[in-house]
Specification:
The complex is a heterodimer of chains A (508) and B (368). Chain A is mainly α and 508 residues long. Chain A has 29 helices and two strands. In chain B, 68% of the residues lie in helices and 2% in strands. Classes of the chains: A mainly alpha (508), B mainly alpha (368).
């Protein structure tokens, strides 16, 4: 008897109101009437098929007012009726339930994530200042109104297949976007996305591919300049890696090999990238302009570069090497052999710091991509290596001489300038390797009639350092001479004083 | 030749009265006793000032006092101008030696109580000239407009900011604005080559007149030992003057050696290397220290806590600056303070200050 009483009390407290609201939604009763004008009728029609109605929610849960047949009672402001919910109020209204796990459990949706409204409020969308004449983004901007469907439902605007179009409703609208941000805002993301591998596969019905929310997050969307954002340069690799490093997720996807066969898409790109010089530049040197995934693959139009386009991609930053490499014979040979241009020697994803060792590898006939250079290229590589190492050794030797002269207090500014020029040529010589042209390499190392090369500048610095040593010897001689004169004068003065005073001391 | 020289001297004598000057010099007597060696430091300081004046004038022929050109012009002097390196090195070394010699002169006068009546004025002018030497050193240090001098001046000009009420105004007047800029360089240059030399010349004139007027002071111990007997003396001209010249030649030789062997300073106490040009937006270099003659004060201020005994209004830096001011004032007014039998106290206090100067200068240089 007592148990039955407790059950009745619980039923009356929690479930009865839901049942009553659902079964006697007075709002629907009137609004669904055919005599009702369209703008008042359609929301009611949509609502009754939505997830909220199925969960037992009524119109008053969002719009306020009373569940009454009497118009004034139902729409009374005193009863909390608010009519259309303003954009600014939506996160609070929706968050009343969606940020409250216990309430969501009460609707039988305990497995649903909560906190969306809170995350939205902290997002770039939630912090937009209102602009007159334009609706600021809010919950209904993406999820629609009244006939809310679960994201897994194909009719939902946030179903993966529909996410790009949903986002593009605002992001492809230049007038709308300009109202909230700068005139230079991009509105071509959807167009680019459709050209990407992701977009193409989505169009074919592959719902596993990345859509806008996969990279930008769903509710807590932050600008790329925010270090907490999933698309901040420091986080891009991890964001892409969420799918691309997951063998399960990538199962079934393939990539074409140089020989035309298909290979399973690798999942080690992120781990290899974190060992690269690019990643080190970004994380250790704090250079946020250093490349991450999207800088080479594109972001919205993400597509793997074709083998013949690798140099073009690298040239975005490495313009001088690309300028030398593009017209070179070695590039033609690599393209013919189907090797990925820059990546043949430098690798991809795990791009290690370039150095003389790389050149030594080519001289031995070894490359990262497994290409075996022709003997002529190997001989050239050996010649380049010898020349570069020779210049470096000469610069180091001159540097020692200059430093030694400076230690003696000599001014070696000019020699330092010449050494800097020599070092510039050493750097240029290392870049010149990309042309694979011995004549151009010689010009950098030894110079031409018009311009001296690195070795000449090193020689000039050496001469200046030797002159400084000569000057030092001259100064010391001068000092010795001056000291001798001074000493003679001192002795003469002392003798004069003695003679003068001894004469006075003599009696008479 | 000798006949011609005699003729020239006679010609000058008839017009400017060389004989009178000579009579003044020969009339002036310098006492001979076991402390006579200290008399030479005054003349040596004067000789070094002469060296500074000559080398300074030569440097102004090429130096350009603007942030855009100052560093480059000094680089030009040391690298391109014939013997420019020598002139700059001698000017730099002498700037340091002159303060050392002036300090020795000051402490010798203090310990021999040579400031006693009627030589109070000689002490006042002498002490003021030492302060001017410090001013010469501080203002001249900025002129090359290199990294070290720029940041050292920035730190140095911040210190007067600790003076209550007027500290900020003093800093602004010194800098010619909120920060050390081209305006600071202009006024430091004006101070270094015009204002300070003018003040120094005036004080030097009074100082030399008073030395001439009162003659050399004989230490009390020597006076007592002679017990009323006439002290042994030598004429200033030519005996003392010739001895002085031997010392000057020795100092000149020392300068020649230092300039030739270490034109960029010893790298420890004296740093004359030009280094990099000042970058107004660069970070303050680590381990920045002032010139050696400010090290004792610098290190003392560094050791003081932010608030003495944790008391809010006892700001460490302000207390430090106040102490230096009081010690400086006590030194300046020493002839007025040292009355009757207070000399023992003066000797002890003077010794403590000397020990503090030596120990803290070394610590300021070697401690991190």
């Amino acid at each position: 008897m007592r148990t039955s009483g407790v059950v009745l009390a619980l039923w009356l407290t929690f479930l009865f109101p839901v049942v009553v609201r659902a079964e006697s939604n007075g709002c629907i009763g009137c609004h669904i009437d055919d005599t009702m004008e369209e703008r008042a009728r359609i929301p009611a029609e949509r609502f009754k098929d939505g997830v909220h109605a199925k969960a037992g929610l009524g119109c008053i849960d969002c719009h306020g007012g009373r569940n009454s047949d009497e118009f004034m009672q139902a729409h009374s402001r005193k009863n909390g009726f608010r009519g259309k919910i303003k954009s600014a109020d939506q996160p609070e209204v929706c968050g009343n339930c969606h940020d409250d796990p216990s309430r969501m459990a009460g609707f039988g949706a305990a497995d649903l994530a909560t906190g969306q409204a809170d995350r939205f409020n902290r997002s770039v969308h939630g912090s937009i200042s209102p602009v007159e004449g334009f609706e600021t983004p809010a919950c209904t901007s993406c999820h629609g109104t009244h006939g809310f469907a679960a994201p897994s439902d194909e009719s939902s605007p946030v179903h993966p297949a529909r996410v790009p179009e949903t986002c593009a409703r605002c992001h492809s609208d230049l007038t709308y976007m300009r109202a909230f941000t700068s005139a230079r805002v991009r509105v071509d993301q959807l167009i680019e996305y459709r050209t990407s591998i992701h977009g193409q596969r989505l169009a074919k019905g592959d719902e596993k591919v990345a859509v806008c929310s996969s990279c930008h997050a769903d509710h807590l969307i932050l600008p790329a300049s925010d270090s907490r954002s999933s698309v901040h340069p420091l986080n891009v690799a991890e964001t892409c890696g969420r799918c691309h490093s997951d063998p399960e997720q990538m199962k079934g996807y393939e990539i074409s090999a140089p020989d035309g066969t298909s290979l399973p898409l690798p999942t080690d790109q992120q781990s290899r990238y974190t060992e690269s010089v690019h990643y080190a530049a970004m994380t250790e040197n704090g250079d946020l302009s250093a490349p991450t995934c999207n800088d080479c693959h594109g972001n919205h139009g993400a597509t793997p570069p074709e083998v013949r386009a690798v140099a073009t991609v690298c040239a975005q930053c490495h313009s001088r090497p690309a300028e030398l490499f593009t017209p070179s014979e070695i590039r033609k040979d690599l393209d013919t052999a189907g090797f990925p241009e820059c990546a043949t020697c430098h690798g991809h994803h795990r791009i290690v710091p370039p150095g003389d060792a790389l050149l030594a590898g080519i001289a031995r006939g070894e490359t990262v991509a497994g290409w075996t250079p022709l003997p002529a290229y190997r001989a050239d590589a050996q010649g380049f290596l010898d020349g570069i190492l020779g210049l470096k050794a000469r610069i180091d030797a001159v540097e020692e001489t200059v430093a030694a002269a400076e230690n003696y207090g000599m001014d070696l500014t000019k020699a330092r300038l010449e050494l800097t020029r020599a070092r510039d040529h050493l750097i240029r010589a290392r870049v010149m390797v990309h042309a694979f042209d011995p004549a151009q390499m010689m010009a950098e190392l030894q110079g031409t009639r018009e311009e001296p090369g690195g070795l000449i500048y090193a020689e000039r610095a050496q001469n200046l350092a030797e002159l400084a040593f000569g000057e030092r010897a001259y100064r010391r001689k001068g000092m010795g001479f001056a000291l001798a004169i001074i000493a003679c004068l001192m002795v003469a003065l002392i003798m004069k004083i003695r003679r003068m005073e001894s004469r006075k001391a003599q009696p008479g | 030749m000798a006949q011609r020289l005699k003729g020239l001297i006679q010609w000058l004598d008839e017009r400017v009265g060389l004989g009178d000057i000579r009579a003044l010099g020969t009339h002036k007597q310098v006492p001979i006793h076991r402390h006579s060696i200290w008399y030479y430091f005054g003349g040596t300081t004067l000789f070094l000032f002469g060296v500074q004046a000559i080398t300074g004038i030569l440097l102004t022929l090429y130096y350009r006092p603007s942030p855009e050109e100052a560093y480059e012009s000094v680089r030009f002097i040391t690298g391109e101008v014939e013997f420019g390196w020598l002139i700059r090195a001698i000017h730099g070394w002498t700037a340091n030696l002159i303060i050392l010699v002036a300090m020795i002169h000051l402490f010798s006068v203090l310990f021999l109580r040579a400031y006693r009546k009627p030589r109070e004025g000689t002490w006042f002018t002498g002490f003021a000239m030492l302060l001017l030497f410090l001013g010469f050193g501080f203002s001249g240090y900025l002129l090359p407009w290199n990294e070290l001098s720029y940041f050292a001046t920035r730190v140095g000009t911040e210190i007067p900011g600790a003076v209550p009420f007027i500290g900020d105004t003093i800093v602004q007047v010194m800098r010619g604005g909120e920060e050390v800029t081209g305006a600071t360089l202009s006024r430091f240059y004006g101070l270094h080559i015009a204002i300070l030399p003018a003040m120094f010349t005036l004080l030097l004139g009074v100082h030399l007149f008073l030395v001439q007027r009162h003659g050399m002071s004989v230490p009390e111990s020597v006076e007592k030992a002679s017990a009323g007997k006439p002290a042994r003396t030598m004429p200033f001209l030519p005996n003392f003057m010739l001895r002085d010249m031997v010392g000057w030649l020795g100092v000149l030789g020392l300068l020649a050696g230092l300039a030739a062997l270490a034109p960029e300073g010893d790298g420890f106490f004296v740093k004359l290397e030009l280094g990099e040009k000042a970058d107004l937006f660069g970070a303050t270099p680590a381990g920045l220290r002032p010139e050696w003659y400010f090290l004792a004060m610098f290190y003392s201020l560094k050791l003081l806590p932010g608030h003495i005994f944790g008391i809010d209004w006892l700001v460490g830096e302000q207390v430090g600056v106040l102490c230096f001011t009081l010690v400086g004032a006590a030194f300046f007014f020493l002839p007025l303070i040292d009355r009757g039998k207070r000399f023992l106290l003066v000797r002890v206090a003077g010794s403590l200050v000397l020990v503090w100067l030596i120990v803290f200068t070394i610590l300021g240089r070697v401690m991190k």
